[in-house]
Design a protein that fits this description.
The protein has 200 residues and is α+β, with helices and mostly antiparallel strands. 48% of the residues lie in helices and 24% in strands.
Amino acid sequence: MELTADEIDALKELINIGVGHAAGMLNEMLQFPIELQIPEVELLSPVELQAELKKRFGIEQLSVVQLGFNGSFSGSAQLLFPTESAVNLVSVLTGEDKTSPDLDSLKISTLSEVGNMLINGVMGSIGNVLDQPLDYEVPYYSEEEIEQLLSSKEESLDYGSVLLAPAHFCVEELQVQGDILLFFDVGSFKVLLDAIAAVS
């Protein structure tokens, strides 16, 4: 499936709105300026996506919050942090020292909450703009390498339906960085494009 230049622009604008909303929420929590970067929107196969993520993050383990969504279109969104960024973020939000033994037990609940809030901010904005309400699953936290991250998705994704629109955010003062990725299930992508066309 090929995207036209207009479809790419419309998708980018839509994701910009959602991610901008989520960044505003994170900014309120952290009280630090957040730098946002949304590169080109691309449709990739899982194999191409794996190569792209390796280029971006290297081979280190990632902290991942995943949230499934259903409605007119379905899929999942993931918030990815390099492990060190995840620790820095949890330390700032909880006030715990980075070396504290309690930090580990706080990490799952804190990052799940942040992921839930950010992903809801992104997908909620997209749903509102397109007038397509979405239901969300419970956020799921894991620590995985890039291969593991995608292996569970290959069955449900057709080989042109991974939408890579990584919103890279960075809080320089806290040495925190991460990415938001969106995955759409087979068939949903066409519905998304039709919904964008209807409101354009």
